[in-house]
Amino acid sequence: MPPRRYAFGRAEEATHPDSMRATLSEFLSTFIFVFAGEGSILALNKLYRDKAPGASGLAVVALAHALSLFVAVAASMNISGGHVNPAVTFGSLVGGRISVLRAFYYWVAQLLGAVVASLLLRLSTNGMRPIGLSVAPGVHEWNALLMEIVMTFGLMYTVYATNIDPRRGTLGTVAPLAIGFIVGANILVGGPFEGASMNPARAFGPALVGWRWRNHWIYWLGPFIGAGLAGVIYEFGFIQPEVPVHTHHQPLAPEDY
């Protein structure tokens, strides 16, 4: 793990093969996550139609998100760092663990992955409109925003502790499982209130393809605030600054994450 550093990104990083591989990995992993997550909601809608699926349906959705995120993070962790979430990328950026250029690449890839997943879901389900996320009746939008902040803070804190902290040691091997678990647990808590996004890409893809934009700003502002706070608190509160090792060339591979 390199020392904390803030940088826009070197010119050669823009076209370096490592950057391209990492960006493609983020696209594919976000695609996997959104396809399974949104697909589980469409499947329940198909099974129950106008009936509310209740607690069992919520558990199924939480499990689908937890398992698919576990796979998505595990598949991309050694290539891109396994962000699969623009908010996680932002938290890594404010913590000085990724360059601005690499963050921009990741954001584009994550949003495209979510959109492609939502488009293919609509095609493969014979035109079912993605449901996406929404604030439940009786829940104020500011309450929903606070819940998104708190849940994403917990997610980013888990990412930092298991996947970014240079002292993580063998704990890094269970990082994908821990990250999947915290997302699944948060869906069980926040799902009935406001959908429990914690991920702007997860919200954006279905919103665009299904054209459902009500309260959409919550699913951007909340996760970015929560992840940014967790990134700053963990980076500067728990990680001791490392003495930089001077070399002739800093690697462009995901170790920069």
TrEMBL record:
The keyword Transport applies. GO terms for cellular component: vacuolar membrane. The keyword Membrane applies. It is found in: Vacuole membrane. The chain crosses the membrane at residues 27-45, 57-84, 104-123, 144-162, 174-196, 217-239. It is a multi-pass membrane protein. It comes from the Eukaryota. SUPFAM superfamilies: Aquaporin-like. Keywords: Membrane, Repeat, Transmembrane, Transmembrane helix, Transport, Vacuole. Belongs to the MIP/aquaporin (TC 1.A.8) family. TIP (TC 1.A.8.10) subfamily. Channel protein in tonoplast. These proteins may allow the diffusion of amino acids and/or peptides from the vacuolar compartment to the cytoplasm. This is Aquaporin TIP3-1. It comes from Ilex paraguariensis (yerba mate).
